[in-house]
Amino acid sequence: VNHVRVPCKYPGVNIAFRVDQGANPFYFKTLIEFEDDDGDLKAVALKEAGSGAWTPMAQDWGALWRLNNGRRLRAPFSLRLTSDSGRKLVVNNVIPANWKAGATYRSLVNYP
């Protein structure tokens, strides 16, 4: 069986972030859904509240990305997505300060 990778297209649907059930204030993991671009995500970075720095997240498998740096994380979180072709998309404060494990947070953006 041959498999061909094709670009995902979700016209009119914005990117959503489903927080993993195991996430907690020291360990953040999210499933990125409805990403509409030229392939898989190559990189995801997280920016905490009050920080100017982007921290790279590790890819678990598929569209699951995690951050576990051994200290309490300060929400709200902004996420920066980098596609296979290197296009970046910043989603500001998409994960609110009172986020909950298992919840899904919809952004207002997607790749054009």
Automatic annotation (TrEMBL):
The family database entries (InterPro entries) matched by this protein are listed as:
Expansin_CBD, Expansin_CBD_sf, LolPI
Stretch forming the signal peptide: none
Protein's UniProt keywords contain Secreted: yes
Sorted keywords for this record are:
Secreted
* UniProt xrefs under Pfam families: Expansin_C
**Where would I find the Expansin-like CBD domain in this sequence?**
26-107
The subcellular localization recorded is: Secreted
- Cellular component, GO annotation: extracellular region
Q: What main location does UniProt list?
A: secreted
Report the sequence similarity comment from the record: Belongs to the expansin family. Expansin B subfamily.
Q: This protein is called what?
A: Expansin-like CBD domain-containing protein
